[in-house]
Design brief:
239 residues; mainly beta; Immunoglobulin-like; 5-stranded mixed beta sheet; 3 helices; elongated
């Protein structure tokens, strides 16, 4: 019995000792705007990470908060999917966050107190994608350059008010398009079939009363740009 008890005790001691074994791992963090790799002690038994700072052992996330001020995960503009200005362009969120190596990107700007990072070695005038740090661990959200508007568009109706049965003319004028504009028309949210590539349409209001909303979308064939939308509302009353 004594030998058995001694054996069980040794097993328990060995198990306890091994469960407390720490492993050295590396974590990517941002400190004062600089991406860096730090060495962390990891305990697989409880998943805890600790780091030694000036001879004192501290919890890793107390020193480098996962959602600290260096990261955008709690920023309103990030949560609301707002465009991020960078240099002379705006960039919009696309895809999911991804982990990047600490040497793959460099800090080249700032927005809302959070650093903007771009691919190392890419000239400023060739940047098509920027990266916003979301949380520690080198997790970044990519943002792609938002295309410029295809054109400036004005849309006019031949009359602001009409009577049931009237025929209303809608005219779209596109300027600063940089190419040949292409037009597509919609009425009350539905596509008007056969209205492609014409800047003037006529709409009959037979058997219709109320708010008539007409929209035109202008793009430019062969040009990478953001289609421009414009709409106008005509009040159609009974005869």
């Amino acid at each position: 019995m004594k030998l058995t008890a001694l054996f069980i005790s040794l097993v328990l001691l060995t198990t306890t000792a091994s469960s407390q074994q720490l492993y050295k791992i590396k974590e990517c963090v941002i400190e004062k705007g600089v991406l860096k790799i730090v060495e962390v002690d990891y305990n697989p038994a409880n998943g805890e990470r600790t780091i030694t700072v000036n001879g004192v052992t501290k919890k890793f996330y107390d020193v480098y908060p996962q959602d600290g001020k260096e990261y955008a995960s709690k920023a309103g503009w990030y949560i609301n999917n707002e465009a991020v200005p960078y240099k002379t362009a705006k960039f919009i969120k696309y895809g999911l966050p991804r982990v990047l190596g600490s040497t793959e990107v460099v800090r080249t700007g700032e927005y809302g107190g959070v650093g903007i990072y771009t691919e190392a070695g890419v000239p400023e005038n060739e940047v098509e994608v920027i990266y916003i740090p979301v949380r520690s661990g080198c997790e970044f959200q990519p943002y792609q350059r938002k295309p410029d508007p295809c054109a400036k568009v004005t849309l006019k109706a031949s009359q602001a008010q009409a009577k049931e049965g009237d025929i209303i003319t809608f005219t779209a004028t596109a300027s600063e398009s940089g190419g040949k504009p292409a037009y597509q028309w919609y009425i009350s949210g539905g596509k008007i079939v056969g209205s492609d590539n014409t800047r003037v349409i006529k709409v009959a209001t037979k058997d219709f009363t109320g708010k008539l909303e007409v929209q035109v979308t202008v793009s430019v064939n062969g040009l990478r740009c953001d289609p421009t939308n414009e709409y106008v509302v005509v009040d159609v009353k009974k005869k």
